[in-house]
Amino acid sequence: MITGAPCRVLIVDDSAVVRQMLSEILASDPGIEVVGTAADPLLAREKIKRLAPDVITLDVEMPRMDGLAFLENLMRLHPLPVVMISSLTERGADTTLQALSLGAVDFVSKPKFDVARGLQDYAEEIITKVKTAARSRVRTLSRPVVPQVRLDPATAPKPRSIQFRTTDRLIAIGASAGGTEALRVVLEGMPADAPAVVLTQHLPATFSTAFAERLDKHSAMSVREATDGEAVLAGHAYLPPGGKHLRIIRDGARWRCRIDDGPAVNRHKPAVDVLFRSVAESAGANAIGAILTGMGDDGARGLLELKNAGAPTLVQDEATSVVWGMPGAAFKLGAADEQLPLERIAERLMALSRS
Asked: What is its main location (predicted)?
């Protein structure tokens, strides 16, 4: 995309109503030019060649070719920033997570009923995500994305310690756009006996269970949605349940999860700052903080609080981030001790946990 020029968008959706609504919403912003629409992926393929869009919005369920199959072909042969338009259902959550694993930059959830009015309610979010996608980094998909097979529980290595020690480390990680895959990469690199990990990823409430299950399949650690009051144990990674904040509290010589249904922070619920501030207060220098790819600045101030509490801190570098908003904001604030490429973060977190 030429700097300063409007980003050129192609809208791919089988619904004429959705195509019309998205066209009107996106064209209302002077920084966006809607160059065309397509009712199915085969029409879209021809228009991509002819119109050379900077960004595509893509529905998942369409005639003639499934949106995921089209996305996989696109990211292998002609990678472009894609924003998925998905439904807020359990099936929609799993499909959207698959789309993100194939290389989609972000997604917007459309309501099941009264789509036209519902999309209008999301207008600001749609515009922001499309413009952010235009500046994002996409890579050619070089391998089929298949879940790893979990080890048989009878033969899988068990966490070395499930007792809490005050010298234990607690790793806190926050992410947003691009983070579903970045978190997968980090957790894939963590051994079964890694220190406890607490996570916040910006996702709609209906996505949290599917996301936790997806991460669990890819990690030697046990990845789960946190429940209120449960003890934080080594070898486990904890995500907030749908639409709620996750905080960590100290209970004597133990850390516990606290599920917080308070207001959104930085327009997010769950919010990274809520998690990080609680970890800074409860774990202090025993913690390690990391921010991965994401849009906005959620987590930057919380990471600074972790650093000021004596915790080592790091952010994903710009070159490997899909969107260097959150890690960039933290780095510019002076909250990060170092910035690292995604593929080195798990190794570094383990090294810091041993130091």
From this structure: cytoplasm
